[in-house]
Design goal:
Helix content: 25-40%
Structural class: alpha/beta
CATH class of the largest domain: Alpha Beta
Largest sheet: 8 strands, mixed
Shape: globular
Number of helices: 18
Radius of gyration: 27 Å
Strand order of the largest sheet: 6-13-7-12-11-8-10-9
CATH architecture of the largest domain: 3-Layer(aba) Sandwich
Distance between the termini: 60 Å
CATH topology of the largest domain: Rossmann fold
């Protein structure tokens, strides 16, 4: 037996991002295997570690392993290579990535799973359905999956239709792809949140029956999550479905990787090193040769770049399919307070005609009552005298209150003109529901957003007021969809504002019944509205990508940010390669923020340089904090 174990210790310090050698005591020799989770003494305390290799000797004087936590190899070579690639891609440390990829051990779950037979359940052999003929390239995609072919990538733009038409039932389409591939390979499906998880989970169960897939989500709790992880790791199931961290799921011989709605910010890890599930799956596809499908109602600039560079093929609904099932999009840029219940006149007319046929969805930008106020006379934003936070209203007749510190502002006066009159900048979902209830007496009004998010509503007539991302699914599709507050979405100046607005609008419109009216409170000449009218998100993504490329902005370039004191940021910037371009720094509260960009070809060199800077600062215990983010989801503020 090899007497030396090489391990990665679970310590989040960049300068310790390397393997360490430990002696294997004779009593533990039979249990120490590559991939095992062990306990070691490190810097005077006991910490977890993973065995990455075994060796016959070491150059160092070694401490012994303290114990073996689990002798089953929970860290596979494929997972280790992927986690290392992700850490390098984002300038981070391997232990931070491993912590996200491998859930904490649960002894009871481990004893129950590892003590049972490991025979995988036989997956039913399926044939592609006729729904794929509604897509250009759809039949080819389905046949490739069914034949077990790997090494290809596709960007699937899903058709709308509120799940009424098979071509627009995206959970069923993803479930079918997984079912077609499972007899040949392991399958990993990643979705943004619990609502999407539940829909795809239901579709997989309906198609394949129970027991053929595992669900990985932090919401399951430690025992169920670890049990699901082990069921995938041991090959009991070939299909794994989960949220963000499921991108690392140890499926046996993964041959198909699927991500849904890759523009959702939930797919971006908030903790260091800030990886994105889409990029994790792209790296995994490159490393393992697995097929990759990115699906959604819209395209991000990243997936559009895949299409433009021919790294992935575009699968889009056929035009005759869209003529049959796409909603009829209407634009109305008249003042929103000109019609009843703050609805533009066209939206009012559509709602009045459609409500008898079923539920009508009303998408508003913000939850609450009146989330933001301004001076009635000069339009200056109303601010709190105590903390300068924005003022808002909580209910009818209530005094204005600061949304940051909750200080009442009953005697508020405008600092610019002295007026005491207020007006609403935005009207929230609760205020909108209240006004709609008065305008449509006898019609139920329900809200979805914030802490109360509905998953499904019935086909009965109702007005459903929801914030973006909280729209419930109507079982038979919505009879009409009204998209309000367009000016708030279109006036945002964040890097991904246009992309995010398109994602929200297309997602809401896709819930409408075939050929149902969708009214957008915006100018019909707006590029985004034109894309919605034609249901052509690919054209919109291509324009957005071209504009960013002209400005040398991501994803045509790689980017990073440094946030810290002026001295810390300046010292870090001086250690970067000459190929990295610097933009700023700009004030960020009591700190500064420096934006860094490089060509895509030099992106890995920038990431390595930033990791080296973090390691140097960590080794010398620099007290001046510096936050490093590589390819952040966004930067700056609106």
């Amino acid at each position: 037996m090899a007497p030396v174990a090489r391990v990665i210790v679970d310590v989040s310090l960049p300068h310790l991002d390397r393997v360490f050698d430990y002696a294997i005591p004779d009593a533990l020799a039979d249990d120490v295997v590559i991939g095992a989770r062990v306990r070691v003494r490190f810097a005077g305390r006991l910490v977890d570690a993973f065995v990455t290799d075994l060796a016959d000797s070491s150059e160092h004087r070694l401490q012994p392993l303290q114990r073996v936590i689990t002798s089953y190899p929970v860290l596979t070579p494929e997972m280790l290579a992927l986690c290392r690639a992700v850490a390098d891609r984002y300038g981070g440390s391997l232990p931070d990535v491993l912590r996200a990829a491998i859930p904490p051990r649960h002894a009871r779950a481990e004893a129950g799973l590892l003590g049972a037979p490991t025979e995988p359940t036989a997956v039913p052999v399926l044939s592609p359905s006729g729904a794929w003929s509604s897509y250009a390239g759809g039949d080819t995609l389905a046949s490739r999956v069914a034949s077990g072919e790997t090494g290809w990538r596709a960007v699937l733009t899903c058709a709308p239709a509120g799940s009424v038409d098979p071509a627009g039932d995206w959970p069923a389409l993803l479930a079918e792809l997984a079912g077609l591939a499972a007899p040949h390979h392991g399958v990993v499906i990643v979705v943004p949140d619990a609502r999407d998880l539940a829909r795809v989970d239901g579709a997989l169960t309906a198609l394949l029956g129970a027991g053929h897939h595992a669900v990985l989500s932090a919401d399951l709790g430690p025992q169920r999550r670890y049990a699901a992880f082990l069921s995938v790791l041991t090959g009991r199931v070939r299909i794994v479905l989960g949220t963000r961290a499921a991108a690392f799921a140890p499926a046996i011989a993964p041959g198909l990787l699927i991500v849904w709605d890759d523009g959702d910010e939930s797919l971006s890890e908030p903790h260091a090193p800030g990886w994105h599930a889409r990029e994790v799956l792209a790296l995994r596809s490159s490393l393992s040769g697995a097929a990759l499908v990115s699906a959604g109602f819209t395209r991000t600039c990243e997936t559009q770049l895949w299409v433009d560079t021919r790294w992935a093929a575009a699968i889009t609904p056929r035009r005759d399919t869209l003529r049959r099932i796409a909603p009829r999009v209407l634009a109305d840029d008249s003042a929103q307070d000109s019609g009843p219940a703050r609805l533009p006149h066209r939206a009012w007319d559509v709602a009045k005609k459609s409500i008898a046929e079923g539920p009508v969805l009303v998408q508003v930008a913000r939850r609450g009552y009146v989330p933001a106020l301004a001076c009635q006379d000069c339009r200056t934003a109303a601010r709190c005298a105590a903390c300068a936070g924005p003022l808002g209203l909580g209910s009818t007749g209530a005094a204005p209150t600061c949304r940051w510190c909750a200080t009442p502002a009953a005697g508020w006066r405008c600092a610019a003109c002295g007026s005491g009159r207020l007006r609403a900048i935005t009207v929230g979902s609760r205020r909108t529901a209240e006004e709609l209830g008065r305008a449509f007496p006898g019609v139920p009004v329900v809200t979805s957003g914030g802490d109360r998010v509905l998953d499904v509503v019935s086909d009965e007539p109702a007005l459903v007021v929801a914030t973006p991302g909280a729209e419930p699914v109507a079982t038979g599709g919505y009879s009409a969809v009204l998209i309000l507050d367009a000016h708030l979405h279109l006036s945002r100046v964040a890097l991904r504002a246009g992309e995010e607005t398109a994602r929200r609008w297309f997602a809401a419109a896709a819930l409408a019944r075939p050929r149902a009216p969708v009214v957008v409170a915006a100018d019909a000449a707006t590029t985004l509205v034109q894309a919605l009218i034609r249901w052509d998100p690919g054209w919109l993504a291509a324009r957005e990508l071209a504009e960013r490329a002209a400005l040398a902005m991501p994803p045509s370039t790689r980017a990073a940010t440094l946030v810290g004191s002026p001295a810390a940021v300046d010292a870090a910037a001086s250690a970067l390669p000459a190929t990295v371009r610097r933009h700023g720094p700009l004030p960020a509260g009591d700190r500064v923020r420096l934006l860094l960009t490089s060509s895509r070809a030099e992106g890995d060199a920038m990431s390595q340089a930033l990791h080296d800077i973090a390691a140097t600062r960590s080794a010398r215990k620099d007290p001046d904090p510096l936050v490093i983010a590589v390819d952040p989801l966004d930067w700056g503020s609106d």
